[in-house]
């Protein structure tokens, strides 16, 4: 049986690792009975043997003596008569016996020491070369198992399997398919190894707060890299870990519910988000907890609930569930009042008012709009005032209070000019023009709608411009209606001729006074026409 052995002739020491300078040779030997019945090689030595570089060299070792058994090492030894070399190399690739190829050394007392030293160097070199042959994920898994972190290894393997299954389910062309797999992202693997092993060590020591912190660090890291699957997974594990923490009055549990609620909200799963936000709210009531920025957990809980209730109400309105939407918006308004944020309270009141107005209850809408007006005036919020004035004018028109609606619209125009909000200014002028047109005050209607038209031209908003054009045409036609009717009712020849000229040329001449000279001109023209006919 042929045995191939690689003999290392020296080592080059670098700062970070030992780089082997290998010279290979082939040893031809025959398995002896002693080797057959000898002890089996240990796992460590067999792994070290595999780490050696294997080549088929044509050079054979010359002058090797017959192998003899070394009682100290339980191995077969062959001596090479070469006094120039002092290295002792373990070179074995046999499953039945181990062979130690020993170079003669004049200092026989140092044989064992040199063997151990070279063996140690080769162990390190073998590990380094193996690390370059294996994948990065494989090496990390080996490190975890070697250090005894079996749970971390299992969790990492399960995560990789889960992500790969999700990737296959999405198929080619999906966003996740265009990204690298987790095995190819070395930085993420390093983070997972670091914090998973840290969490497992803390769990063995019973330090569950440290476990929570490690899992939260992973969740925040993957959220920063926009890896939603991994971030959501670790936010869920954070919430599970909080059940083992009893020293913080459930503060960590409240924070975990807030984080998980936000994760569900970003995914659009609003009902699940509501459950976690409500749990966060219940846990933080009357608690002095604050985040790193000094913001109260209770205020954050109120803001989260107000936001998620408003989003739920929007979904209900899309499905034409107005009553359920109003109830949800009222809950959002009450929560906003508890939070102590006046701006949030005003916005909540504004949304309730719009919902009541859309449901045909302008009186209740006016009540909530008055709250929004007070808050906006208190905060000097011109943008809020403009929205309140516009909504209030529409509600007042619905109840028939036109004069009050005009007053709010005029204030709306002033605020829009102050804010240089062209779109709001167009809406305000258009609304005023429509109201004045309804009241029969066509001159004012044309004036305001003309302003709206001039501003709309500069906005590059074609649908808005077309709407303003229609209103402008209606107002202009109404403004000419009185003069047209007056000329029709007069019934004189000059009035009828004016109507004919306007019909042909579309020139507004009805506001010009009718004089005697004009009458004579029309009479002369009429007589000439009659003579031509004769």
UniProtKB/TrEMBL annotation:
| A cellular component annotation (GO) from this entry | cytoplasm
Please list the residue ranges covered by the TPR repeats: 254-287
Q: Is the Transcription regulation keyword given for this protein? A: no
The UniProt entry, under SUPFAM superfamilies, shows: TPR-like (SSF48452)
* Pfam families (alphabetical): TPR_6 (PF13174), TPR_8 (PF13181)
Q: Which InterPro entries match?
A: Bac_ResReg_Asp_Phosphatase, TPR-like_helical_dom_sf, TPR_rpt
Kindly list the biological process annotations in GO that this record carries: cilium movement
> According to its UniProt record, where is this protein located?
Cytoplasm
Q: Which UniProt keywords apply?
A: Cytoplasm, Repeat, TPR repeat
**Coiled-coil regions, chain positions:** none
**Membrane-spanning ranges:** none
- Provide the function of this protein: Axonemal protein which is implicated in axonemal and/or peri-axonemal structure assembly and regulates flagellum assembly and beating and therefore sperm motility.
Which PANTHER family is this protein grouped with? TETRATRICOPEPTIDE REPEAT PROTEIN 29
Q: What is the protein name stated in its UniProt record?
A: Tetratricopeptide repeat protein 29
Gene for this protein? ttc29
